[in-house]
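Quick one before lunch.
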Amino acid sequence: MLCADNITLGDRLDGVSAGIAPGRITAICGPNGAGKSSLLSVLAGLIAPDAGAAELDTTPIADLSPRARARAIGYLPQTPEVAWDVTVETLVDLGRLAWRGGPLAKRRSGGADDAAAIETALDAMELQDLRTRPLSRLSGGERSRALMARVLAGAPQWILADEPLANLDLAHQLALLRLLRREADAARGVVLVMHDLALAMNHADEVLVLDEGRRVALGEPETALSENVLREVWGVDARWVGEPGSRALALR
Ligand SMILES: Nc1ncnc2c1ncn2[C@@H]1O[C@H](COP(=O)(O)OP(=O)(O)OP(=O)(O)O)[C@@H](O)[C@H]1O
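Model of the adenosine-5'-triphosphate complex:
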């Protein structure tokens, strides 16, 4: 269980509590500036809150060693930028760092587990043809897929991804959603910041809605993203059409 316990962070988050279970896809939704990325960063252990705590299976995330945290939680940032212009396969290889022990020389070249995890991640994100390409010569969506492959290569127990679908075309969006569903079915935790409310409605098991740093709703998509919530939080008058699982938003 990944828990936000009364998290406060400046004027970005105001006493947010939420228990997130593994084996499910949880979407974090809300308007621009609502605090979604801030909460995801706190849950990933990248930002220390001013008050409250993020906990993984009752252990404060701040108490985990960097290596234990990196093995448990894979984090995909919102912006697909990378400091070094490495190749796709080098980037994905970096996702294995937390699994390499021993002296530096050994850490530089991975073993069979590393190689298998890297190949699986490259396959999953359809990056084999681009593996030797430097990141500076990729499109935005390709770079996003490479960053997601780095997360997958680490085989984390939890995947925390900030708008992982934003730069992807429709086919790659659906492929990634299928992959994340398989991860959840394998009892891993999947937490996604999502702006596309129809994708959240149709693919998430649970939705946490934030507004102005506060939790507004947490529950099944049909409840957390009800037409009332859309009106109150987003100020949008819309109705859900279609069947559960294939809902679309119609503006009034
Ligand atoms: N590093 C920072 N220091 C201080 N305030 C920040 C920082 N990053 C973001 N903020 C502010 O905190 C609030 C929440 O930002 P956050 O990025 O968490 O929102 P978000 O819900 O992810 O928004 P978006 O949908 O635009 O990505 C915003 O008002 C933002 O201006």
